[in-house]
Amino acid sequence: MFGNEFYIDPERCIGCQSCINACAECDTHRGTPMITVDYLDRRNSIATVPAICMHCDDPTCAEVCPADAIKKGEDGVVQSALKPRCVACSNCVLACPFGIPKVMTKLELMMKCDMCYDRTSVGKRPMCATVCPSQALAYVPPERIARERRETPTNVFQFGNETVTTKVYMMVPRGVTAVEVDVVDYMWEGAGA
Amino acid sequence: MKRFGDGRGVEPLWREEVSIHAADERYVSRRQFAKFLVLTSLGMFAGNLWILVKSWFAKKPVYPVQPVARLGEVPVGGVRLFNYPGPHDPCILVRTAETEAVAYSQKCTHLSCAVYYSHENGRIECPCHEGYFSVETGRVLQGPPQRPLPRVVLRQDGDRLVAIGMKLDPEEVRRA
Question: If exposure means fewest CB atoms within 10 Å of the residue's CB, which of A6, B32, B73, B89 is most exposed?
Fold first, then answer.
């Protein structure tokens, strides 16, 4: 959209939570941030990673929605659930490989990051990317990322045999082409820690 | 044909009908439906208004005076076909009695089949869907037609029968 792409660089995240507060200021969902900042290994590290919707090319959340409430636009943005249709069944919450959708039980509605559609659809940057002081969240043209960063972007994620490609890019070390996620291994380590 | 990501097979129909892509959305929204209703009823209203205004300015049709037959030429119970008021409007004349003759449009009011006079049953019959009309008044006796046959008004000039107009008796219309 307007030549910009979304890049996440967990290495740059300092856990300041500016993005959360900026997101909560948006008029379309005032007071409820659609972004979270997760601690990767709280006991041993202060490392954090911002979690926004990756806008999958083949969005699992929309595939599993029984109410046909999650739609993907032609621009590749996977929209938040449609209020008249969502039945708050949490299928999308369980299905999303990145753990993005959240069901608001009081509203009986799933809400997730829609890449600030009101802003990005008219050429503005998403709220979180405008405030991120370390540009761990960057909404810039690809040329600029290639010029300014040491890491390379990738939008391929490998979950076991399942390959997920996304609209949002993750910055990875040079030479890495896909982010391999060993979910079982991570769960085991998490349980033992 | 698109396939599942894991190669499970051909896409089922429901995936096409309940697509995750916003562009494939085929539901009619409430607003679209309301708009359709309002616009079509507005169109209907305008059309009816137009018909009403047109009928105000419509001229009364002028029928020609046209000799049809001599009474002696048609035997009692016999018929004669003619065209009235135009050359492409078939009509049927029936001599019902020594001194009486009636004439109707030959087009059945159901689907415009040509009606004929059945002397043994004493009625005008349409062969297509068995619509029967009274030979005295032209009103529907049975069958699918809803309106009576338009009647040709005849005048007797000596032994000549002259058509002078067409008549759709409103009372007959109501009864039919």
Answer: B32
3-state secondary structure of B26: coil
Best of B20, B25, B26 to disrupt the A interface (most A CBs within 10 Å) is B20
What pTM was computed for the model? 0.59
Tokens of A105: 């039980």
Residues A34-83 pLDDT 10s: 999 999 888 899 999 999 999 999 999 999 999 999 999 989 999 999 99
Residues of B in contact with A101 (CB under 8 A): none
pLDDT tens, B4-46? 555 556 777 877 778 888 888 777 778 889 999 999 999 999 9
> Which residues in chain A are contacts of B2 at CB distance < 8 A?
none
HSE-up of residue B96 (Cα within 13 Å, Cβ side): 16
Cβ within 8 Å, pair A72-B25: no
Whether residues A70 and B6 touch (CB distance < 8 A) is answered with no
Confidence of residue A7 (pLDDT cuts 50, 70, 90): very high
- Answer for the pair B109, B145: CB distance below 8 angstroms, yes or no: yes
ipTM above 0.85, yes or no: no
Partners of A68 on chain B (C-beta within 8 Å) are 18
Catalogue the E-assigned strands of A35-172: 36-39, 48-51, 102-104, 109-111, 137-140, 152-159, 162-172
Question: Which residues neighbour A140 within 8 Å (Cβ) at sequence distance 6 or greater?
Answer: A4, A5, A7
Sign of the CA dihedral running B15, B18, B19, B20? negative
pLDDT band at A190 (very low <50, low <70, confident <90, very high): low
